[in-house]
Write a structure and sequence with these properties.
five-stranded mixed beta sheet, 378 residues, Alpha-Beta Plaits, D-Maltodextrin-Binding Protein, domain 2, ten-stranded mixed beta sheet, 43% helix, alpha/beta
Length: 378
């Protein structure tokens, strides 16, 4: 048979498949109406297993292809049903409140809690996020969260991940335990330098101070130093401040060039970080949920059953709606053996068709769902 003839037959089958697919989706909508009326859940695992078992027997050697076809059909049908389901949900109420609290433009002013001292990367993030904001410095990430929860600051800024050293787990742990909303994020290019008192040589240095993330981002350089003690501290600016205050040429800091100018230090080495492509993301958090115009990222913390296929069922919902996932990371649940939650980030807006329904479906089907926020990144 000629290729052109084969393609003609495929075109005929495609038309028939589309017609059948639209009929199937229409019936799925009828099922949604029935479930709405009788207060029934969307998910019916026994029904899905029954169909998949029949498909496997009928498909023969093409069983795995048929399996993926029908699981995709199930996800599309459930996505449509989730749009039509009128059952109340916590995430639905949260999104509604967040949309009402948001505005067309993200504010330029406000009090913002920042961990560290003047010159910290978090301070640079604060200036980018709230150009005319009033920065209030605190000692720890916990203090940032406390200031926002108690209302002494409208916003707080937390580093959340680095391109070469991974997630800042302490920040994610706090977001998991506290009910704060992510309202904005910013990505900064980070440049580390080894700073010390004027006149200090590399061979003079016995101790180096910095934040543990910066230490990790400069690990190759640090491994090449002999007899030098590396000591973690609050953040890179606090490390530079300590070197300036101690007045000892035996200590140095991994910090930034602005901190050298700010604290009267000199750069001993400026080629110390593992990668020139070194970016850190920061979340701007608020006490109450708010979604501002232009929000196109959603962050979630999801807990799912410890069983085969549980994570796939979550990810397939994104695929069914054509949503791109930009982050997936597992985190062990404290105090439980081999149980995990997942940090997820997707490129989507709750205003897009099907997205809110998908989130509500996740809430109904997952062990836990923590909606961190829908926000824009600058």
């Amino acid at each position: 048979m000629e290729l052109s003839e084969i393609r003609k037959q495929i075109d005929v089958l495609d038309d028939q498949m589309l017609e059948l697919f639209l009929k199937r989706m229409s019936l799925a909508e009828d099922i949604a109406d029935y479930k709405n009326e009788h207060h029934m859940p969307i998910l019916s695992r026994s029904r899905e297993r029954e169909i998949l078992s029949k498909v496997a027997k009928q498909a023969g050697e093409r069983e795995r292809y048929a399996y993926h076809l029908f699981t995709t059909l199930f996800q599309l049908a459930k996505a449509r049903q989730a749009e039509l389901l009128s059952a109340p949900s916590q995430v639905g109420e949260m999104v509604k409140a967040a949309l009402e609290a948001g505005a067309a433009v993200f504010p330029k002013t406000g009090t913002v809690a920042c961990q560290g001292v003047e010159g910290a990367n978090s301070q640079t993030a604060c200036d980018r996020l709230l150009p005319r904001g009033e920065i209030r410095y605190v000692n720890t990430f916990e203090d940032v969260v406390r200031a926002v929860e108690e209302g002494s600051c409208q916003f707080g800024v937390l580093p959340i991940e680095n391109s070469s050293n991974g997630s800042v787990r302490a920040a994610y742990d706090l977001l998991q335990k506290h009910s704060l909303s992510v309202v904005r994020s910013v990505r900064l290019c980070i440049r580390h330098e080894l700073l010390a008192l004027p006149g200090t040589r590399l061979e003079d240095i016995r101790e180096i101070y910095s934040h543990e993330q910066a230490i990790g981002q400069c690990s190759r350089f640090l491994r090449g130093l002999e007899g030098v003690k590396v000591i973690p501290c609050g953040n890179t600016a606090m490390a530079a401040q300590k070197v300036a205050q101690e007045g000892d040429r035996g200590i140095a800091a991994i910090s930034s060039h602005p901190c050298a100018q700010l604290y009267g230090l000199e750069c001993v080495r400026d080629d110390i970080q593992n990668s020139d492509n070194n970016y850190t993301r920061f979340f701007c958090v608020a006490r109450d949920p708010a979604i501002y115009a232009g929000a196109n990222r959603i962050s979630l913390i999801v807990g799912c059953d410890n069983r085969p296929g549980a994570l796939y069922e979550i990810l397939s919902k994104f695929s069914a709606l054509g949503i791109n996932m930009t982050k997936l990371e597992s985190c062990p649940v404290t105090g439980r053996n081999f149980e995990f939650v997942f940090f997820l980030e997707i490129e989507a807006s709750v205003l897009e068709e099907g997205v809110l329904g998908m989130l509500e479906e996740l809430e109904r089907e997952c062990v836990s769902l923590h909606f961190l926020g829908n926000y824009a990144e600058i």
